[in-house]
Amino acid sequence: MLRSLTIPSRQNASVFLCCLFGAIFATAGICSAQVAGRVPRVLILYPYDERIPATNIVGESTRVRLLEATAGKIDLFSEFLDLSRFPETPHVDRMARYLAEKYIDRRPDLVIALGKESTSFIVENRNAIAPNAKIVFGGFGSATANELHLPDDVVGALTEFEIRKTAEMAIGLQPNARQLVVIAGSAEFDKAWIDSAQEDLTGLPPNIQTTYLTGLSIDEFVERATALPPDTIIIVLTVLRDRTGRNFVPLNSLERIASAASAPVYGPYSTYLGHGIVGGNAATFESTGAAVASLAIDALAGRAITDVTVPQSYIADARQLQRWRLSEADLPLGTVVSFRERSLWEEYWKEIVAISVFVAAQSLVIVWLVFERRRRTAAELQARRRLLEVIHLNQSATAGALSASIAHELNQPLGAIRINAETAAIMLESKQPDLKLIQQILADIRDDDQRAGDIIDRMRGLLKKRSEVDWQEFDLNDVVRSVIHILHPEALRRNVVVSSVSSTQGLPVRADRVHVQQVILNLATNAMDAMLNASAAERNLVIQTAVTETNEKVEVSISDTGSGIPTDKLSSIFDAFYTTKPAGTGLGLSIARVIIEIYGGKIWADNRPEGGAVFRFVLPLAQYG
Ligand code: ADP
Predict the structure, then answer these.
(1) What is the sign of the dihedral through the CA atoms of 532, 538, 539 and 540?
(2) Can you tell me the distance from the alpha carbon of 592 to that of 576, in angstroms, rounded to the nearest whole number?
(3) Which of 149, 232, 163 is nearest to 194 (CA)?
(4) Tally of helices (H runs) and strands (E runs) in the chain
(5) Which of 44, 255, 259, 590 has the greatest CB tally within 10 Å of its CB?
(6) Average pLDDT rounded to a whole number, residues 491-506
(7) Cβ atoms within 10 A of the Cβ of 361, count?
(8) How many whole angstroms separate alpha carbon 133 and alpha carbon 33?
(9) How far is residue 468's CA from residue 466's CA, in Å, rounded to a whole number?
(10) Local structure of 3: helix, strand or coil
(11) pLDDT tens digits for 230-241?
């Protein structure tokens, strides 16, 4: 805050008029000081040194506005008079002589004096430093201006205080308050504040009792503030000096009282904000700077200027409102609320929105992927089921095609059983039956029953239905053997000689045994079909198994001595529905290919040089599967 605290008072009308006339006469001076062809020179005088924030804020606010208004076409000079640390007359005179010398060739057209010390300094030394310059001041009120007896052409932005507005703001926030306590120290300035407040606070609502606390030590002030009931309104004016004669910076004395107070504290200075007050009605240093700058701009432009009052505003500290559970809604309209703790949302809403959008998009993608995956899994499951059904249909068709010869084959053991049983019955009717022979007959019956059972088992195995692939490890040679058994009666019927050349080593593969058996059956029945027109002596079907050169796979080949395959059809025969048979379906080879590929293998066909076709497929050995 400005160290030269302005003495509180209402604006004096006579001073206002004096200044008004003074300003009108002064305009000509400013104009004549301006030299065509150069930018105006403005000297800003700071009363103290450069560490005092209050004057710095006013000066900076003035400077920025001047630069903006003139688009930078202005020569700005700043001088820190340091009159607080060096108030003695010799220093003041030295400073005046120094500035008179310094600006001898660049006399300012306008001097801006901040605070009463700067103002009286330039008024007393204007002839030496800036003889033709207009003077604009800021940072104190009309009472101080009156005391300084300023010349008419010295015009300023007056800071006035209306403590009543601060009190009204407090009453609005604390409608249940019954007591208003006004605190001020023992310095002349403090006392003047109390006088002004007493004048200003008359006529407050009758239910509020106003007490003036003054003439106490700082500790007594703190003690009294601590003991006040919570429905009290406390207004701290200034405590520059306490009863014991101790001097204080008002901000510090306020801080001590406000931090200990048991009721909300208010104050008339914007600098008090953030140091314990809930709020008040005050002129900010920025608005003082703005008012000073606009006077200066008018003066430089040759317009008439008169004293103005710096607009005041209601200010409040959101943290104190929260501390005393006071509602922001009860603040006067247009109150500037500072130190509002922004919610997490207010602070990071952009980041939160961006992250939420990202997370939502990612979630959607994940949901979509999961959904797609499920759909694909379901589709795959359905496709697999369909395939298994098709394979089973193929098995049934093969079983159907072989059923006549298998039934025929079954007849043999059954017939033998019947004959043996009849023979045994006859033998048992004799007086001395040959028990050894009967025993032999019964053994034959048992063997034939076993054969019939095996045939039925194979038939049942051929027709086994799968709802899921039954992965198992088995020896491929065993499957070839069982295929030869199944084909045996049909081969007999067709005069086909079926032989096998099996690898001597075990051929373990991992697959569904029934499926692989079906592949070999398809290839073998096709081979028998292809030999229909061959002479009866040349119908040979050879099923061969061997490990491939790399020792990683097993190869099965089914070769025949049939018609062979047209070269251009060697690959298309595996397409579904390709058939050259009148009652063919064209599905056997395509199903065989699907099965082999499911188990990681490959199938292909060739013609044998000596005539006939050879079908080969490879499957990975179990340890490589
Ligand atoms: P289908 O037996 O119902 O015709 P496949 O898919 O099993 O269906 O066979 C397709 C076609 O491939 C047969 O119609 C036949 O023309 C040809 N084919 C299959 N195996 C042989 C073979 N060993 N020799 C000559 N042609 C064959």
Answers:
(1) negative
(2) 11
(3) 163
(4) 16, 20
(5) 44
(6) 91
(7) 10
(8) 7
(9) 5
(10) coil
(11) 999 999 999 989
d(CA 128, CA 100): 5
Of 239, 209, 208, nearest to 222 (Cα)?
239
CA–CA distance, 135 with 557 (Å, rounded to integer): 116
pLDDT at 13: 30
Query: What is the CB neighbour count within 10 angstroms for residue 363?
Result: 10
Q: What phi and psi values does residue 286 have, to the nearest 5 degrees?
A: -65, -45
- Label residue 339 left, alpha or beta by phi (over 0 means left) and psi (-120 to 50 means alpha): left
Domains of the chain: 9-158 (3.40.50.2300), 163-277+313-341 (3.40.50.2300), 469-625 (3.30.565.10)
Best residue among 533, 568, 579 to mutate for probing ligand 1's pocket (most ligand atoms within 8 Å of CB) is: 579
Q: DSSP 3-state assignment of 216?
A: coil
Rounded-to-integer distance, Cα 289 and Cα 467, Å: 90
What's the confidence (pLDDT) of residue 625?
59
User: 522, 525, 526: which to mutate for ligand 1, most atoms within 8 A of CB?
Assistant: 526
Q: Report the distance separating Cα 412 and Cα 408, nearest Å.
A: 7
Is 533 strand, coil or helix? coil
pLDDT on residue 12: 33
Q: What is the pLDDT of residue 31?
A: 37
The pLDDT of 317-327, averaged and rounded, is 95
The DSSP secondary-structure symbol of 48 reads S
Q: Phi and psi of 615, rounded to 5°? A: -105, 135
580 CA distance to ligand 1 middle (Å): 7
Ligand 1 atom with least separation from CA of 574 = 6
Give the separation between CA 379 and CA 385, rounded to whole angstroms.
10
pLDDT at 280 over 80: yes
Which of 95, 78, 81 is closest to 42 using CA atoms? Answer: 78
Q: What percent of the chain has pLDDT over 70?
A: 94
Could you tell me if 193 and 141 are in contact, meaning their C-beta atoms sit under 8 angstroms apart?
no
Tokens of 534: 């061959």
What is the spatial order of strands in the sheet that 313-317 belongs to? 209-213, 179-183, 232-236, 265-266, 279-282, 313-317, 336-338
Res 564: pLDDT: 95
Sheet of 602-607: strand order equals 497-501, 540-547, 553-559, 613-620, 602-607
The helix, strand and coil proportions of the chain, stated in percent and rounded to the nearest 5, come to 50, 15, 30
Q: Enumerate the β-bridge partners of residue 509.
A: 474, 621
What sign does the dihedral 433-437-443-447 (CA atoms) show? negative
Minimum CA distance residue for ligand 1 atom 12: 573
**CA–CA dist 300, 136 (Å, integer):** 11
Pocket test of ligand 1: the residue of 589, 595, 604 to mutate, having most ligand atoms within 8 Å of its CB, is 589
Rounded to whole angstroms, the Cα distance separating 154 from 137 reads 7
Separation between Cα atoms, residue 194 and residue 185, nearest integer Å: 9
Q: At what angle do helices 163-173 and 188-200 cross, to 10 degrees?
A: 60
CA angle 451, 454, 455 (to 5 degrees): 90
Residues 369, 373, 375, 377: what is their CA dihedral angle, to the nearest 10 degrees? 180
User: What are the pocket residues of ligand 1 if the criterion is a CB atom closer than 6 Å to any ligand atom?
Assistant: 522, 526-527, 530, 560, 562-565, 573, 578-581, 584-590, 613
